[in-house]
Isoprenyl transferase (Sphingomonas humi), 249 residues
Amino acid sequence: MNLTPSASSVVEGPSAPVTVPRHVAIIMDGNGRWAAKRSLPRVAGHRAGAEAVRRTMQAAVDNGVEVLTLYAFSSENWRRSEDEVSDLKGLMRFYLERELGTLQKEKVRLKLIGEPAAFGNELYDRLQKAVAETASNDRLTLVIALNYGSQAELAAAARALAQGARDGTVDPDTIDIGAIENLLHTRDLPPLDLLIRTSGEVRLSNFLLWQAAYAELHFVDTLWPDFDEAAFAAALAEFSRRQRRFGGR
Ligand code: IPE
Ligand code: IPE
Ligand code: MG
């Protein structure tokens, strides 16, 4: 992944030309508050959130987005109760089984970032299997961030470079931006164009800190379970109106 301006596709719409972001990432927040508003347990919010994932993935396919990266579980979410973590793992397992057919039908390639092995062998093996089975799909790349934390990702990159320097395989003088990007989990993905966060919180919560350097940011009050095709289209429309400069004029 690099930060040079991405060649977002320009689609001629009925009025002004529309620029479609190649890579969209979403901090899917607000499941708990959605449930609380309805006096439901938090797990009901997570379940409704999974339906929003389904809708959003379809909207990304329909709009010609190349990569959709979703923040599903942060490296800090282990601070939640054991019950909630267990519910989230159960939902991941359930939706993975249920949606594998949809991924194949829509030609969606699944990819993981973060440290998903921490979820235990059973879930990790299923995830790996889904990644392998969808590897040749070429319509949308759906990246799920599981046990992901940007600071840990950058620390691991620093560690790898330092070890290389110690072993003599890395010349410290040659460490540049590209050398770091090649060690990030997103190395095979196009630059991040648009980062969306739902639920009214205006922070990044340790998500894609490096990658967001020149991403357009879009914060909406909508709680994640209420996010739908129209909300996704509104974010794309807003992106299309932005003028990206990458430090130029
Ligand atoms: C996002 O919703 C889902 C995860 C972080 C797994 P939250 O569970 O954070 O919902 P709120 O922020 O408490 O409303
Ligand atoms: C960010 O949401 C993580 C995910 C959406 C997976 P959080 O709800 O964990 O973030 P904070 O704690 O409000 O910053
Ligand atoms: Mg939250």
Summary: The chain has a mean pLDDT of 95. Residues 19-148+194-241 form a domain with the Undecaprenyl pyrophosphate synthetase fold (CATH 3.40.1180.10). The first strand starts at residue 9 and ends at 12. Residues 82-105 form the longest helix (24 residues).
